[in-house]
Amino acid sequence: MSCASLCIVVVGAPTVGKSSVSIQFVQREFITYYDPTIMEAYRRQEVIGHETVMLDIIDTAGQDEFVNMMHPYFRKADGFLFVFSVVNRETFQHLVIIRDEVLRVKDTKSVPAVLVANKTDLQNERTVPEGEGRQFAQHFFRDHHVPYIETSAKMGTNIVKAFHTVVNEIKEQKRQESTFLNALSKGRRLSQDWVRVEEVEIPQSLGASEVPSSTKMATQMKAGMGTQKKKKKKKGWSCVIL
Ligand SMILES: Nc1nc2c(ncn2[C@@H]2O[C@H](COP(=O)(O)OP(=O)(O)OP(=O)(O)O)[C@@H](O)[C@H]2O)c(=O)[nH]1
Ligand SMILES: [Mg+2]
Prior knowledge:
Largest sheet: 6 strands, mixed
Bound molecules: guanosine-5'-triphosphate, magnesium ion
Strand content: 25-35%
Number of helices: 6
Radius of gyration: 20 Å
Order of helices and strands: EHEEHEHEHEHEEHEE
Distance between the termini: 42 Å
């Protein structure tokens, strides 16, 4: 049985429950004491769909002074859990800063991700309503929504679902990228510099710098030269190159 390895990075403001979510997923237990994290790494093998996947889970520090230390993990990450606490509105607002930092470090417009609304067992103290969380998830990346999942690390609610969902997001992105690269490689070569590719979906996650530079056409696309029509679609870009 093949076993792919994926790296999932858990980010969010201090005390939102990143460690509790990670430990609940890996060890199926809830830690009540609070011990600020610098960085912890966990591994867990999961069967998701028909595939066995080894997950490397990086539990990051919430405190700002450690954010630069996290950059190598951001770069390595296949997917992210963006966690906030439903009882602390500031942690919800802070996600915008963390999101932008992740995108800047990875030099991309979107990443496979799930928005995790944690501590939902504390309903009486709730300050971020579900509707607002869902609304934010709809536009989490400029033109691209992310799944929104309400969790309680304390009760174990939806923790497995959050990790499985991000794995599915990663797989979906990989599928889109391989479709794009296949179409590129099958494109009809018109001259030394141009290939003809009909209606290729360019996954949003493929930033300009990630389009394979070995392909002349891709080089020209990057430079914005040549005859090409680029139109926005609901998901990613559709590109007709003639
Ligand atoms: N009631 C409740 N408490 C939670 C939940 N998740 C975490 N906590 C508590 O919130 C506190 C902070 O949890 P942590 O998991 O340490 O938070 P963190 O995001 O890892 O914090 P940093 O490592 O400092 O960034 C702890 O006391 C946890 O027990 C939850 O779902 N419900
Ligand atoms: Mg922690």
